[in-house]
């Protein structure tokens, strides 16, 4: 029971290790650590006890004596039992492990959602803080962080509405594929002959979306990928103009275009975006160190990033985000500081800090043994440095999420100056609004506010499949929209 949740929690402490479940202790061969958990009933209550065995000896033990006393503001007994089991396992492992778990027993990717749900139940801030640190075992700084982020987000997300939606446009093309990338992306060297056909199919799907979302109100639009600016200017221009023609530019509160790779940006392309009244662009260096850029598969230099940013400023963009990744192979804290120094001089309106995640489908996963991955303490020092620079740039955290296989058990944080927050980022992370995604690899999330749940409706990732199944992708979403 709860094998998935237990596996994800245990993996936090034993990153990269082989974790197996056994039903009978006789199957334990004593070549590794044995974690034993017992859930037992005690009259009208339950208790959970975890023992950790090594070489036949119990080296750690922890008891959660009363499941009923667990207070996460949920009456569901199964929820309390799951929390109790995770608490006892977490405490037992923590007693013997040098690995830090700043997010406690939380293994989901959206911890801020918990705070929103508690606020929705009229729970006070102090009580929420106590629940986070006592029941979910968060470190104090993480508890304060997500409470502050949730408070900042409320004015953008609420009131909830079943009649409002945002739009995600997937442009799954890139000049090259970075070794850490797990997104649907196709190299233009191989797939450039499909760009025109893809543009046509994407526009066809947008027209179908317009039909079944006719009575809904659009909020934000996010054009991502891939690298949207990798495709020709005229193709991207057609897509943007189609969005405006179908949904109305004045109806869209915010429109973001990922302009991530400087080797895809030209003066012509930036002027096209500006003439189309794009609110926000994202120029994503990931690092400002040339040796790392070459290693991860980028075909541009750190100087190219600076030139592109300055060109965007000259073109008139006043809301620019920059992404960086902490924990890239071969980088130490001096490399991170160099990146932050250059970015601070450019002074973007927002900075998104990602902790490297080793995804199964990324090239980096295949080559992980070839690189020196930084230990947790160093990653933590790097993140503290990003926080310091963000504060100096007057950027405040406004959204946060976590991912599986993330180095150091840490998080991704978006910082921005007040008034320049990306509304779409908050909506997609907190899952409080319907997101309609079009294009290969796009994942729609249909929100049911009365039930506080959503349905995930993915488009196919394969480019060739999408081109032949576009109508089917739209029909998938239509069926769910009809049930809201």
Question: What's this entry about, in short?
Answer:
The protein has 17 helices and 16 strands.
Can you describe what's shown?
It is built from 17 helices and 16 strands. Residues 366-374 have low confidence and may be disordered. Helix 1 packs parallel to helix 2, helix 3 crosses helix 5 (140-157) and helix 12 packs parallel to helix 14. It is α/β, with parallel strands linked by helices and 484 residues long. Strand 2 and strand 3 (57-64) form a beta hairpin. The strands form four sheets. Strands 12-13-11-10-9-8-7-4-14 form a nine-stranded mixed β-sheet, sandwiched between helices. Strands 1-2-3 form a three-stranded antiparallel β-sheet, with helices on one face. Strands 5-6 form a two-stranded parallel ribbon.
Strand ordering within the main sheet: 12-13-11-10-9-8-7-4-14
> Which ranges are low-confidence, i.e. pLDDT below 50, for 5 or more consecutive residues?
366-374
Secondary structural class:
alpha/beta
Helix content: 40-55%
Total of DSSP H or I helical runs spanning 4+ residues: 17
Whole-angstrom Rg: 24 Å
Query: How far apart are the first and last residues' alpha carbons, in Å?
Result: 32 Å
Shape: globular
């Amino acid at each position: 029971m709860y094998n998935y949740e237990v596996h994800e929690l245990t993996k936090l402490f034993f990153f990269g290790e082989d974790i197996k479940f056994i039903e009978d202790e006789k199957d334990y061969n004593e070549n590794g650590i044995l974690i034993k958990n017992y859930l037992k009933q005690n009259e009208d209550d339950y208790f959970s006890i975890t023992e950790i065995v090594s070489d036949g000896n119990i080296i750690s033990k922890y008891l959660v004596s009363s499941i009923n006393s667990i207070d996460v503001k949920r009456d569901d007994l199964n929820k309390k039992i799951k929390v109790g089991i995770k608490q006892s396992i977490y405490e037992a492992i923590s007693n013997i492990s040098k690995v830090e778990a700043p997010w406690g027993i939380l293994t989901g990717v959206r911890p801020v959602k918990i705070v929103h749900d508690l606020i929705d139940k009229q729970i006070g801030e102090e009580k929420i803080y106590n629940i986070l640190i006592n029941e979910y075992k968060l470190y104090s700084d993480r508890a304060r962080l997500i409470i502050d982020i949730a408070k900042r987000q409320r004015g953008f997300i609420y009131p909830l509405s079943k009649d409002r939606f945002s739009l995600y446009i997937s442009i799954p093309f890139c000049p090259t594929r970075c070794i850490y990338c797990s997104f649907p992306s196709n190299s233009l060297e191989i797939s450039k002959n499909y760009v025109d056909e893809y543009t046509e199919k994407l526009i066809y799907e947008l027209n179908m979306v317009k039909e079944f979302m006719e009575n809904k109100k659009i909020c934000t639009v996010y054009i991502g990928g891939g690298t949207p600016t990798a495709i020709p200017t005229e193709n991207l221009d057609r897509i943007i103009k189609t969005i405006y023609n179908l949904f109305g530019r004045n109806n869209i509160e915010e429109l973001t275009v990922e302009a991530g790779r400087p080797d895809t940006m030209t003066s012509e392309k930036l002027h096209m975006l500006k003439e189309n009244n794009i609110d926000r662009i994202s120029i994503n260096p990931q690092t400002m160190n040339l040796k790392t850029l070459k290693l991860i598969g980028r075909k541009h230099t750190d100087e190219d990033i600076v030139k592109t940013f300055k060109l965007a400023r000259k073109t008139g963009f006043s809301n620019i985000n920059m992404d960086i990744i902490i924990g890239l192979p071969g980088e130490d804290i001096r490399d991170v500081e160099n990146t932050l120094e250059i970015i601070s001089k450019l002074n973007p309106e927002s900075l998104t800090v990602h902790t490297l995640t080793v995804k199964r489908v990324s090239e980096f996963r295949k080559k992980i043994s070839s690189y020196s991955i930084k230990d947790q303490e160093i990653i933590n020092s790097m993140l503290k440095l990003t926080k310091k620079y963000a504060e100096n740039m007057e950027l405040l955290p406004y959204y946060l999420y976590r991912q599986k296989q993330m180095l150091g058990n840490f998080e991704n944080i978006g910082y921005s100056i007040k008034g320049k927050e990306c509304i779409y980022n908050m909506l997609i992370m907190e899952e409080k609004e319907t997101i309609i995604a079009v294009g290969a690899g796009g994942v729609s999330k249909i929100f049911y506010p009365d039930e506080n749940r959503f349905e995930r409706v993915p488009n196919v990732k394969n480019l060739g499949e999408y081109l032949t199944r576009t109508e089917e992708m739209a029909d998938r979403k239509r069926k769910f929209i009809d049930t809201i």
